[in-house]
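explain this:

___
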Amino acid sequence: MTGMNRYSLILTVIMVCGYTQAHAETRYVTDQFKVMMRSGEGVQHKIVRTLPSGTPLEVQATNSETGYSQVRTKNEAVGYILTRQLMGSPSARDRLAATEAKLNAALEEPKQLKSKLTETRSKLKKLTTDFSKLQKIKNKTAKELETIRNTAADAIRMSEERIELRKNVADLTHQIEDLKQENRDLSNQNTRNWFLIGAAVIIAGILIGLILPRLHVQRRKDSW
């Protein structure tokens, strides 16, 4: 067998194997199809709309003789379709999609819970830190308040002492004024006394001046 023939044989085997493998793969018939909505009950009526499988419809009336039902779409379009093409529940494809959505949501829930847990822990840590800061501020404020109370107490005490001192000063001032008045009264009395004494001395001198000459004259007369 020549080299060219051997190459052709190998290529043919590869193609046959590839064709066999391709035809051995499994395929599925699609569940997506269109339903014809007509203007009347029968194939002789024109198609007004094609509806994909799973489209929700409101059944207006059903004719068992023709096998058609009058339906209304969500956008208020009215037509007729075969009754056997209507189902009492959503299609399996839609139910599967809804189930998959719920499953995905259920699978995402732990992630969301983990994320919320992490967020909650972060918030708790922040709240703990804020609480610690507020506690420090509270303690500092309490100390400052105690200082203010002590200062206020000292101020009140000093104010009371000041009032007492003012009262004492006022009392002493009254006493001093009373003493001054007494001193003035005594001084005036002494002045009057000295005045009276002086007057008495003057009067006595005058009397002596009047009496002594007479006594002297009387003695002379007696001596005569």
